[in-house]
Amino acid sequence: MKTSVKLALAAATGLLCSHLSTLPASAQSDPVAEFYRGKQIRMIVRTTAGGDYHQYSYLLARFMGRYIPGNPTIQVVNMPGGGGIVAANFMANVAPRDGTVMGIVGQGIPLDQALGNSAQLKADMRQFNWIANVVYSNQLLAVWHTSPVKTIEDAKRQEILIGTTGSGSPSVQYPSFYNAVLGTKFKLVSGYISGTEIDLAMERGEVHGRGTNPYSGYMASKPTWIPEGKLVPIIQSGMSKEPKLPNVPLILDQKVPPQDKPALEFMARGSALGRPLATTPGVPADRVAALRKAFFAMIEDAEFKATAAKEHMEIRPMTGDALAKLVIEVLDAPQNVKDRVKAAMQPKDPIIKKAK
After folding, report:
1. pLDDT digits over 190-199, tens only?
2. Domain 31-136+272-333: top CATH class
3. Cα dihedral 224/228/229/233 (nearest 10)
4. Which residues contact 199 (CB under 8 A, 6 or more apart)?
């Protein structure tokens, strides 16, 4: 009798286990889903509202929660300051380390860390958990169509005013580098809160151009400016030319002494960082994996694709692993190359402060 009962129990247990194994994943215990269910994720934006950092962040906030287990809501939080340093420091040192905070990190921050350019930067990019590169496209130094300078060769002969934001921003790094290595004569005007404010300054005639912005950023925020000739790119930094900008000179093609070629390559590689999406240090690996999976599931969503296309927002993704590798390559560049780039990024003339 006892044997019969044991056999019956074993059979019942086997049937139950078999039934559970056929249930959908959502019906089984999922610690990631249990954690995120009912929670809100904050999407930190390193700029004010407007501009492509905000636009891309808002687009992700609309759709990504659908694919994160537990379907948390996502709230966009603008945290401008220091060319992205304020947002990076918050994510590194203040935000909870549990996967409830994400953000598109300022593109210039890994370069800033590699070069030790800012005493205010308290974040270590090696410790961030990289989810994906949303889009990587070349950095453009561009001028308004009324500028007396229309080419990079013109800029070597005539001074023009270039709008910039904070010390951690590529808008300061790139024109300073061009001045030192290529011999241009850009005069930097600092104090603008965001790229959007610099765009307005160009329209008003306060400055002739903007220190840098990705091609994808302009196409998202001002999609008609370049095609209609209102904005004129005069140099692009990246590993190869943007397909739609075949006549704009590439940084790697510039004639410099052989010892400066590695510095050009460093800057070109830094441009590939694009719009890097990360969560904070210390997040459990299973949550990081879930966020990465959710991102790539989201970009295949038909509604997401249609919305991105309607808003002129290019999605050119890079995996979190590939992005992490690129960040490390920038941080671990040879010291002599970093020394040359750092010296080149220091403005030779005093930066003009924006009029209040």
Report:
1. 888 888 899 9
2. alpha beta
3. 40
4. 210, 221, 222
